[in-house]
C-alpha cells in the first residue's frame, strides 16, 4: 500500500526532481540516507564504542584481580566504571540494535525505505557526535566519575569538580536525541510502510519488538532528557534542583533517572527477544510457537516496564507501601517473560534444529537469559533486595540480562543477517569458536559474582581487603573476562577474513529463511524491492516457498521507483549541536587567551553551533527535496 | 561441613581397600571442588549475607532461600526441556521433509501463564509481609537504643542521642537489644550496610532522612560497609559493629561520657596535638566535631575503618603501626579523604610518631 | 509521484492537502508521535516543579510573586492564537492561500505578544523581586518549566514565520501543506501545555 503511492501516476511528469547527486567514497557515507548504509554506519560506530567499553571492562577486571591492587588509582577506577556502563549501554549496544533494525526492518515489512530517511541519518549523526563528545572527556580534563547512574549530590559540581559529569550530561543529551529520532522513525515506518497484506498480526516478531521498543524509547527518553537538563543547569548555571542547601532534592534525580532507566532495560532486551524469535524458527524449520501470545507478552512487558522503576530504589527509603507495590509489580514481569521462554523451547520441539552459529547463540541465550531472569525475580523481593542491592549480586544479574541476554542476541542477529547486510557468509568455524569462548568466558566472569555479592562485596569498589574470601572468585572472574575478550577478537578476525572473500551469498543463504528479507538479493539493491511484494500470511516468504514459488508475488507492476536524495545536512546539524554542547559546557571557564574566553563566556560558541544547526534546518525547510527516480529501464539492467 | 567429613570417610574406606586410588581421586575431585566452592561461597561469619547473625538478616535470607528454591525449580524445568529439545530434535543428515508447522497450543500457553503466576504469588505474599515487618523502625520504642548515623566522605559517625555520646567507625551496641537508627549524610549519599546483621539503607540528606532497626543477639564484631558510590574511597569506607553484653555497653557509655582529657604527657606534643589535631577532631570534651571523634581510639577495631588492628599481625597490624601508616600519609590509605596530611601542617616525623603512640595507648577502661 | 507545483498552478489541491502524499501522512503521524514524547518531557518538568514548588529557600514564594492579571492576559492571548491557527487550517482546507497567510500572521503576532509579556514578567521577577534561576529550588523549577514552554513558543513563532515566507515563494502545495498542518498541531500543543502551567504553576501557587 505504501509504495503503491509512488507509482500511482505512471506518467511521472516530474521525473527527477533535480539532478541526482551521486557521491562516492567518504562523502557517500556522510551524505547517505539509505537505511542499509546507515545500518552499517551504526554497526561500525557501535562496534567501536563497544570495543572501548570492553577495553574499560578489562582494565576494571585487572584492577580487581587481587585484593589491595594498585594497578589503577581510585579516581581512575571510578571514571572507568562510569564510562564502561555509560558507553556500553548508550553507545555500544543501542547502536548495534539500531544497526540491525535499520538493516532488517524495512526489508522485513517489504518497504523500500524508512518513513523518514533524512531523520534516520540525523539520528545516526547526533548519536555519533554525542558519543564522541562523551569520550572526549578522557583527554579533556577527566571522565565522569559518579557512576553511570550519576546519583546526586555526588554528580553535582560540589563533589565532582572536573568537567567529567558535564561531558556525561551533554554527551548523553545529544546521543539521546539521536535515539529518540530513531524511535519515532521506526514507529512511523512500521505503522505506514508495511507491504500490502502485511497486517500487524502478520509482522515478523523482530518487527513487532522493534515497534514496541520504539514506543518505549518515545515515552522513556524524554524523561532522561529532562533529568539531564536539570543536572546540567545545576552544574553550569547554578540552579538548585539537587542542592539540598537551597531546597533541592537529590532523591528526585533517582526517580527521574529510573523512570527512564528501567524502561531502558526493556529497550535493550526486547530487540534481542525479537532476534531470537527470528533465528530459532528459521533453524528449527518451524513457525514461531504461540505467535500471538508472544506479541501479547511483548506489549505487557513494555507496559509493566514503566511501573517498576522504584525497584532500583528499595534502599532509598520509600516506605513499606511503595516497596511492597513495586516488589509485586516487578515480580509480575516474570510471567510474560516466562511465556516467551517456553514459546521458544516449544518452537524447537518437533522441529529439525540446525546448530549454525546464529542458532548456537540463540539457543545459548535461552538458559543464560533465564538465569538472569530468575535473579531478577529474587531482586524484586524488597527485603531480600536490602541485602542484594548495590552488591556484586546485582552486577551479576544485570550482566546476565544485558550480556547473557542482549549481547548473545545481538551476536545471533549479526551472524544471522551478516550475509544479508554484506553479501558474505561469516565463517561458521570461527563463529563457533566465538560462541564457545564468549559464553564460557561470560559464565566464568559473572556466575561467581553472585556469590561475591552474597559474601558481602559491594559494587563499584576500586579494591577490597584480603581475607574476606573474595580473592579466588575475583581471580576467576578476571580470567573469564579475558576469555570473553578472546571471543571478541575471534569475532573481529572472522569479520576481517570474511571481508576479503567474494560477496557471493545467496538471497536465502540459510536456505530456510521465512521472512521477506530473504526473498531479495544479498545485499539488497538500493531500492530493496523491485516490486513491492504481496504478503499472504505470516512468514510470508516461507509460505510462498512451501507453495512451490521461488519468489514473492508482486503487488504492483514494475515501475519507476522514488528515492530520497543524499544530503549533507544531517551531518552538519549534528556538528552544530556538538559545537553548541562544547561551548555551553565551557561557558563558565577561564581561558588563557582573551579571545577564546570571550567566545566561550558570552555563549558565542554555543550560538555559532546552534546557528549551524538551525541554519541547516532552515535549508532543509526552504529548499524542497523531491528526491529522484530509478526508472524501469535501469531496473531491468540489473541482475535481480 | 558435612560434605568434607563424608569425603574424608569415603576416601579412608577406599584407602583401606588400597584399590584403584586414582579412580577414587578422579571421582572425588569434582566433589571436593564443589564443596570447596560451597564453603567458600558462604563467606565470613562476620560479613556474609549467607551466614546471618541477627533476625533482620535471617528474614532476608529466608526470602532468598524461598526465592532460590522456586527459581531452581524453574531453572531445572527450563534446562531439562532445553536439553531434551536440543538433543531429540536435531536435524538429521538427509532430513528433508518439512516439520509440522504448529501455531501454538492454547492449553499449554495457559499452563505456563498460570503456573508462574502462582509462583509469583507464593513469593509475593511473604515478601509483602517482610516488607511491612522491616518497616518497624523502633523509633518510638523506649527499650531501643537510639543511634544517629551520619555518613561522611569516607567515615561513619555514630551518635547515641539518649546518652549524648558521639563516636566514629566502631558502633558499640548491647547484644539482643533493638537499635533504632536514624540515618543521614553530611555530604553525598552513602549506604549503611552490615551484611551479617541486616540489609542496607541509604543515608540521605535532610528532608529525606531514613529510619530503620536491627539487633544482634550474639556478642561479636561485625563488618560494615558503605554500599553507595560516594567518591574515590567508597570501597574503603568500612566500619565495625561491636555487639557486647549489656553491662559492657553501660560501662562503655560511662567511660565515653567521663570527660577524660588525657592529653599527651610530653607538653610540647600536647600543645601540637591541641593546636593541630583538635582543630577538627574531638577527644572527650575537647576539640571540634568536624572529623571523626577520637575518644578512646586505642580501643577500636581498626584505624580509618580499614587498617585492622591486630597485634598478631595476621589480619592487620598492631594499632600503633596502623596509626603511623595513616598519619604519615592519609591519602595513600584512603584517596580523596578530607584529612590534611600532618606533614603539610608542619608536624615532624617524630611528632607524628609521638601522636600515633599516644593515640594507640588512649584506650577506654 | 504527483507533482505538487503543477497542482498548485492548476488549483487542483485536494481537500486535505496535508494527507495527499505518503510523505505528508508520514509527517503528520511522525509529528503526533513526537508530541507524545513532548508530553512526557513536560510531564517530567511538571513533576519536578510539583516536587519543588514549596522549597523557596527563604526567597519569594509563589503567592508573593505571581500577579494573576498579567498571566491571565498572556493566557488569553495564547488561547486566541490557538483559535486563529484553527482558522488558518480552515483557510488551507478551503484552498485560500492569502487568507491562510493572514491568519498565520495573526497567530505569529499573538505568539509574539505572549512572549513579550512573559519576558516582561521574568524581568520583573529578576529585577524587583530578586527571584532568579539560582534563588531557590522553586525558582529553578519555575524558570525551567515556564522557560521551556517559552522556548517552545519562540521556536513556534520562528517556524511558522519561515513557513509563511516559504509559502510566499512556493504557494500552497501538497509539500507545504503538511508543514503548515503540523505547525498548527504544535501550536495547539504548546497552548494545552500553557493551560496546565497556568493551573499548576500560577493558580495553585496563588491558592496553595
TrEMBL record, chain C:
Compartments where found: Cell membrane
GO CC entries: plasma membrane
Sequence similarity: Belongs to the cytochrome c oxidase subunit 3 family.
Entry membrane topology: Multi-pass membrane protein
Keywords: Cell membrane, Membrane, Transmembrane, Transmembrane helix
Name assigned to this protein: Cytochrome (Ubi)quinol oxidase subunit III
Annotated InterPro entries: Cyt_c/ubiquinol_Oxase_su3 (IPR024791), Cyt_c_oxidase-like_su3 (IPR000298), Cyt_c_oxidase_su3-like_sf (IPR035973), Cyt_c_oxidase_su3_a-hlx (IPR013833), Ubiquinol_oxase_su3_dom (IPR033946)
Domain called Heme-copper oxidase subunit III family profile: residue spans: 29-206
GO process annotations (BP): aerobic electron transport chain
One of the Pfam families matching this protein, by short name: COX3
Keyword Transmembrane in record: yes
GO molecular function, one term: cytochrome-c oxidase activity
Chain segments annotated as transmembrane: 29-50, 70-91, 103-120, 140-165, 185-205
Membrane is among the record's keywords: yes
